[in-house]
Amino acid sequence: MNILFIGDIVGRPGRKIVKTLLKEIIREEAIDFVVANGENAAGGFGLTLEVCHELLDAGIDVITLGNHTWDNRDIHRVLEEVDCVVRPANYPEGTPGSGYYLAESQTGMLVGVINLMGQVYLDPLACPFRTADQCVNILKKKTHIILVDMHAEATSEKVAMGWHLDGQVTAVLGTHTHIATADARILPQGTGYITDVGMTGPRDSVLGIKPEIVLEKFLTKRPVRFELAGGPVELNGVVIEANEYGLATAIRRIHRMLE
Ligand SMILES: [Fe+2]
Ligand SMILES: [Fe+2]
């Protein structure tokens, strides 16, 4: 089974490249299942119901989130109405929505998706490692194919999650930093791993935002109003090949551009 994971989709440019190229990538790479991080999909901040349906119509099966989950109030409608959108599982008990989801691919395969958020330099939520174990135990009863979006800032925390879940899940994919890392590999017990998948959005930017605005913030130390950058758009993703035991047999990065 071939799975595509798309890194943080940023605003309209990110959605545009997904809508333009996803069907083609699915064909070329014989993809059976698509997961994407959508925490920045609506104008760079959060997710709306309309944007969510736009992404699902483009061919995405499950959308994961992160620290920007609550940026747009419409997320409450999304989490109420759309099962295949998951927010970090380690939010406090009683938080709307779910941190994991069991989906069915076009070919009838069951795929579990877990979203976790790191604690280092981010809101201190429940322990992502113990939360991961709980979610894996639930999903393991239904399927061996399990994907984990580890939404975190610190590379150490992300790679530690890879080792923690090695052999337990199909892949641990890092998101949040918007900068793709060159360490895609299969861990010794068969889990595919990458520290960060990278961003799907405006290339000539600082994490999706106009460079001059971010520079103003760094140079003046005063608040600024973020605006998405224009220009060429990139898509960063990872393709994972999984065997019948739910272990990764290959993992490779993909990168596409739209001028
Ligand atoms: Fe992001
Ligand atoms: Fe994030």
Tell me the fraction of residues in β-strands, as a range: 25-35%
Shape: globular
Radius of gyration: 17 Å
Sheet/helix structural class: alpha/beta
- Distance from first to last alpha carbon: 31 Å
Bound compounds, each kind once, are: fe (ii) ion
Q: What's the CATH superfamily, by name? A: Metallo-dependent phosphatases
Q: What is the makeup of the main sheet?
A: 7 strands, mixed
In DSSP terms (H or I, runs of 4 or more residues), the helix count works out at: 6
How many β-strand stretches? Answer: 13
Q: Which regions are unreliable across 5 or more consecutive residues at pLDDT < 50?
A: none
CATH-defined fold name: Purple Acid Phosphatase, chain A, domain 2
Tell me the count of domains.
1
CATH C-level name: Alpha Beta
